[in-house]
Amino acid sequence: MAFDFVGSISSDIYKLRRSETFFKLTARAIIERASSEFSFHTISHDYGVGTVKTAVSYVGLLEKLHLLKTVEAVDPNTGLPMPRKLRKFYLLDPFIYHSFSKWVGAVPPDEAKMAEAAVAAHLARLYKLYYLKLNGEVDLVAEVDGELWSVEVKYGRVRKGGRRAVGRVKRFIYTSAETKPATPSFQPLLLAILKTPTPSRSERRNPQLTSREMTPSPP
């Protein structure tokens, strides 16, 4: 299955007259730096993907092929993206990570990074998605009905204690592989994904969904 998938991607690259070498180097950068913030310059300079403009082009190609989501930092006070800041890059499925890792000769990300990518990919289907870095902690931030919701993904134990509101970020969701709630806003990782509703046709046209749709279920 992975071989067929990679073969179809390789065929698409050929039909589009793009460089498979640059495509694979871009994918390798995203895999090896999974869950980290980095720039197009890093892809260009550290991985040899031509110029920064070339790196932007191949990231765009991954997005057009529905393989990748690029997430910008958000200003917590205004709710606006900050395009000059570093970005986060998420492949949209663990299968893509594993298939591309074999293809480009990279080690797949660990389970914690895969979990973050899975949550990010799912949220991005429904909401405008950003990230926020404060005091060394990096959270996903979803815009829900004009509100900014912080989503912290932990594959291990969820820390106890609340988080303080920052600017417009006033609500917090915690997801973890644990199955017992540690906080009122705790969500087991699997349920956090499964219970996020599939948008209707009209909602796909308008990603500004109601806040109830991200309200965690009672423990």
Automatic annotation (TrEMBL):
Designated name of the protein: DUF4143 domain-containing protein
Pfam families documented for this protein: DUF4143
All copies of domain DUF4143, residue ranges: 15-156
Polar residues bias: start-end ranges: 207-219
Superkingdom of the source species: Archaea
Region (Disordered): 197-219
